């Protein structure tokens, strides 16, 4: 089998340190996104791979295919129009905080090629909600042909003060909510001290209620974006039911599972000792277990976006079988290249055609851990 163009240039990219390469990739993405945004303003908007087999209708919107961009790459929403062109069926931008912040000291992003993983402790480095809102005011006058999610998190200086934490999320939502097809509340990054404590059921319920209320006050009526909660892969599984119940009772419409992990299962070498969250292949099974647990708790109607360790078709199938309605990736772009979503969407469509089914038919009920490869229907 011939090598892909990306596999030939990846060794050159990997000579750069991880964050330098990331900054260059974001810069190129922003340039491409700007050009595509200009094209969108005159009605030229790319559509990612889609078919009646791939489409999902969830949360009041249509996802052309179930392969999405996870939060973390396009932190400042500089490339909103690019992701459909690369094959993504939806894109989640951010994480954005109310205040601009530089994040944790460099170095803070590490590749583990042998494990197909990353470790990051970036710490929500972003330009802040007002700057991102000003950008989206211009770039989203013409909407992409895919749903755009906006991921909101807490500013580091406000963590630990319950009232200021709430006000922080409220302000970010006030500024960004009108640009979002859905809003993701990030309470699960391991890189902002105290953030994961917001997963405690009573605190989570209060936060979700406030953010949901702010979305309702934007004056969008029935077009107000749904709210999803992004959870940690390191949650004890017996704590998931209470967390889900608290979020849903306060107004959440679904869940994103999962964020990065502090566990070091499946990683090796000296860089595995770096602090931060692990993403990529080692996260897959841990993420799938949390997806399955959420699905078993919330039943078949609540949407779940599965994130963690998605790089090849078997990963997509396993995530769906665990109970995810949609899947999202980020680390796979580092190892597989910018067109990984397009490849996965085409491969999934061929698999669905072979099985004579649609993607919704592959979504499991969370009753058992999904196998690496979903068995063919009998």
Outline:
Helices cover 36% and strands 15% of the residues.
Write up what this structure looks like.
The chain has one domain: Aldolase class I (TIM Barrel, Alpha-Beta Barrel). Helix content is 36%, strand content 15%. It is an alpha/beta fold and 378 residues long. The strands form three sheets. It has an eight-stranded parallel β-barrel, surrounded by six helices. The longest helix has 23 residues, at 18-40. The chain is globular and about 55 Å long. Helix 7 (240-249) crosses helix 8 (284-298) and helix 8 (284-298) runs parallel beside helix 9. Helix 6 (201-216) links the parallel strand 8 and strand 9 (227-231). It has helices at residues 5-13, 18-40, 82-85, 129-139, 162-176, 201-216, 240-249, 284-298, 313-322, 331-336, 340-355; strands at residues 56-58, 61-63, 67-69, 90-96, 109-112, 117-120, 148-152, 182-186, 227-231, 254-257, 277-280, 304-307, 326-329. Residues 370-378 have low confidence and may be disordered.
Named at the architecture level, the CATH assignment is: Alpha-Beta Barrel
Shape: globular
Broad structural category: alpha/beta
Order of helices and strands: HHEEEHEEEHEHEHEHEEHEHEHH
The main sheet orders its strands as 3-4-7-8-9-10-12-13
The CATH superfamily name is: Aldolase class I
Cα-atom radius of gyration = 19 Å
Mean of all residue-level pLDDT scores: 95
Low-confidence stretches: 370-378
Number of domains: 1
Proportion of strand residues: 5-15%
CATH topology: TIM Barrel
Main beta-sheet strand count, sense and barrel state = 8 strands, parallel, barrel
CATH class designation: Alpha Beta
Distance between the termini: 32 Å
Give the beta-strand count.
13
Indicate the percent of residues in helices. Answer: 25-40%
Number of helices: 11
């Amino acid at each position: 089998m011939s090598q892909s163009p990306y596999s030939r240039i990846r060794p050159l990219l990997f000579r750069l340190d991880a964050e330098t390469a990331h900054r260059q990739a974001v810069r190129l993405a922003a340039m491409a996104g700007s050009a595509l945004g200009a094209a969108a303003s005159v009605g030229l908007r790319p559509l990612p791979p889609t078919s009646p087999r791939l489409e999902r209708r969830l949360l009041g919107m249509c996802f052309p295919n179930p392969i999405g961009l996870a939060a973390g790459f396009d932190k400042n929403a500089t490339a909103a129009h690019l992701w459909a062109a690369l094959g993504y069926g939806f894109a989640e931008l951010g994480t954005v905080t109310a205040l601009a912040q530089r994040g944790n000291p460099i170095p803070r992003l590490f590749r583990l090629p042998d494990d197909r993983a990353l470790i990051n402790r970036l710490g929500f480095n972003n330009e802040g909600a007002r700057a991102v809102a000003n950008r989206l005011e211009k770039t989203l006058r013409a909407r992409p042909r895919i749903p755009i999610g906006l991921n909101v998190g807490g500013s580091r200086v406000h963590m630990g003060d319950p009232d200021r934490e709430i006000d922080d999320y409220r302000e970010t939502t006030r500024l960004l909510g009108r640009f979002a097809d859905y809003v993701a509340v990030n309470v699960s990054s391991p890189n902002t001290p105290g953030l994961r404590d917001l997963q405690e059921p009573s605190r989570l319920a209060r936060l979700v209620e406030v953010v949901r209320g702010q979305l309702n006050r934007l004056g969008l009526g029935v077009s107000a974006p749904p709210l999803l909660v992004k959870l940690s892969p390191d949650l004890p599984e017996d704590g998931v039911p209470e967390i889900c119940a608290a979020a849903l009772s306060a107004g959440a419409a679904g869940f994103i599972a999962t964020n990065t992990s502090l566990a070091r299962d499946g990683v090796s070498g000296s860089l595995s000792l770096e602090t931060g969250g692990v993403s990529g292949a080692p996260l897959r099974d841990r993420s799938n277990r949390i997806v399955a647990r959420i699905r078993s708790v919330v039943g078949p109607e609540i949407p779940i976006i599965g994130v963690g360790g998605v790089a090849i078709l078997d990963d997509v199938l396993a995530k769906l079988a665990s109970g995810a309605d949609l899947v999202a990736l980020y680390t796979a772009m580092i190892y597989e290249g910018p067109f990984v979503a397009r490849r996965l969407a085409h491969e999934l469509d061929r698999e669905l055609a072979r099985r004579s089914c649609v993607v919704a038919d592959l979504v499991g009920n969370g009753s058992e851990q999904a196998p690496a490869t979903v068995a063919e229907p009998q």
